[in-house]
Amino acid sequence: AVAARATELTKVYGQGETQVVALDRVTVDFRQAEFTAIMGPSGSGKSTLMHCVAGLDSFSSGSVRIGDTELGSLKDKQLTKLRRDKIGFIFQAFNLLPTLTAYENITLPMDIAGRKPDKQWVEQVIQMVGLSGRLGHRPSELSGGQQQRVAVARALASKPDIIFGDEPTGNLDSRSGAEVLGFLRNSVRELGQTVVMVTHDPVAAGYADRVVFLADGRIVDELHEPTAEAVL
Ligand code: ADP
Ligand code: ADP
């Protein structure tokens, strides 16, 4: 099944002389239970693609669907609900709430959605990302790497259909990074989740089922069963 699909997706920033075509008629499928890495030079449109497919950014033309839902057909409220119900985000900037503890940050999306957390799963996620002794700390009391783990745990805790990650291991040392990637990998296998991750790191891309390469707002290559060596 297709978890998300972009069809002829075009995104133009600005107008006239300052216009930038960030995405140029991109068509791509993200299948259920597939882990995709998006790679490409800086400015090639990776973040824009991810934001548009995740329903965080508007686009200029083309279409995006999540599951069976066309994003273009949704009102803002419906789009917000869809994001809450189906999508997990791992951003580099963490987006953690400073006044909440790590544990509260992790369960916040479910609290907002009025959903009961699967305690066993949340516990498993917390252990896996190595946050067990830090749950009562606020973000300012955590290192960058620990904050990133909170962001990862938050994205996984609600068992979303799709997880979007923007350099999800960018702030982690290589060992923690490998653990998080292994966990995403497992989560795809065990829960049938779909993961879409923007990364510069060939080692990270090696955890994916496939790599989609962008250049100048277009998909220029695709690699299945990538190895870090092949991506380099
Ligand atoms: P990547 O993630 O591959 O580095 P981006 O998707 O961030 O690329 O950017 C693609 C292009 O769109 C770049 O040329 C960038 O300068 C431009 N761009 C991104 N965001 C904006 C914005 N908010 N306003 C204007 N141009 C933007
Ligand atoms: P610290 O981070 O100070 O070492 P803990 O990690 O033991 O402390 O937990 C701090 C707080 O996180 C607890 O007071 C509780 O509110 C919350 N917490 C931790 N684990 C759980 C859990 N399994 N279920 C619900 N709340 C928890």
UniProtKB/TrEMBL annotation:
Listed SMART domains: AAA
UniProt entry keywords in alphabetical sequence: ATP-binding, Nucleotide-binding, Transport
One GO molecular-function entry: ATP binding
Pfam families: ABC_tran
Tree of life domain: Bacteria
InterPro entries registered for this protein in UniProt: AAA+_ATPase (IPR003593), ABC_transporter-like_ATP-bd (IPR003439), ABC_transporter-like_CS (IPR017871), ABC_transpr_LolD-like (IPR015854), MacB-like_ATP-bd (IPR017911), P-loop_NTPase (IPR027417)
ABC transporter domain span: 4-232
Any coiled-coil regions, as ranges: none
Protein name (Swiss-Prot/TrEMBL): ABC transporter ATP-binding protein
Organism (species): Streptomyces luteolus
